[in-house]
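#lab-general

N.A. 3:47 PM
ok so I finally got the sequence cleaned up, no stray characters, all 354 residues accounted for. can someone with queue access submit it? mine expired

B.Y. 3:52 PM
send it over

N.A. 3:53 PM
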Amino acid sequence: MKALRRLIRWETMLVCVLIAICAVFNQRDAYMQAAGLFKRDVFNLASVIYAMRPYMLYSFMTLGMMLILAMGDIDISTGAGAALSVAALGVSYQAMTVSDMPSGAALALAIGVCLITGSLCGFMNGLLVTRFKELFPMIITLSTQLFFRGISYLLLGGGTLTFKNDATFDLLKRLYATVPFAGINLPVVIIWFLLAALVYCVWLHFTPSGRRIFAIGTNARAAFISGVRVDRIKLFAFTLCGLTAALTGVFFIGATSSSIRADSMMGYELYAIAAAVLGGFSTSGGKGSVLGVILSLAIFGVMKIGLATLYGFADSMVNLSVGLILILSALLPNTLGKAGDWLRLNRRRSALNS
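B.Y. 4:20 PM
back already:
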């Protein structure tokens, strides 16, 4: 029984899904080469890892989002918070360079302003969620989403802020660069994400403070009676979610050639939520794992790369396929749960009859 439980763990199922997807795409790649449509294989480990760069931009936001979902809440303002943080970065950097501050110091301070802005956005969400418990977190964060976007437009004047031919600001592009590793051009963003994911994994799954987050999601009232400071932990989690959203914004600037717009990263919060849900987290709270989130991000990236490269699907069709996987991932646990309840009920009936 224990071996069976390990076999059907959610992370194991995600690994099987990833292997199955890769097998299908490898077969398609071989067929395209045999038909003379491709001169060489286009779906291999090196090419897939290199092509994962654009799909890893919201990975840091996903780490913050999974904390909120683990507590049974939701935050749909992270994309707008990231855009506001990036706008603050650009405006502050421009103001400091005009004042003849050394460009290196100006960039460092501007990044600090960006991270602080994101943290304040998250802090505001956490404060509203903990002070107005009669309102759903989705309603609160929907309101703050509009508020953050509005401030972004005010800061940028509805236009685009660019820093062309600025060698110092272009240093951020290195965050979107690659480094050679074992014959593979490994994106820098993947390295930073895996390091951050390792920290989150140790914290959430192996420390008392991390386990308290899951306890709040399981039963917030019981956790409070047990001495867990629910509101303080929620405030911290929302603030950390805002910080990771700002961090996503920093990497986003490196990927967009130093171009800053108020409508940037629109919809990123949906990708972050989808990746966290596929990884095992849900708004019911109390469950999920960092390993599952890593696997879900890999599945999303491989799906988009394979469907676009091997099948020529447009982005809309790719999103449709990813959405289908997400729907199935939401239905499967409930189906398995009902099947397990049915089996247990039949077992008890058999024991009574015997």
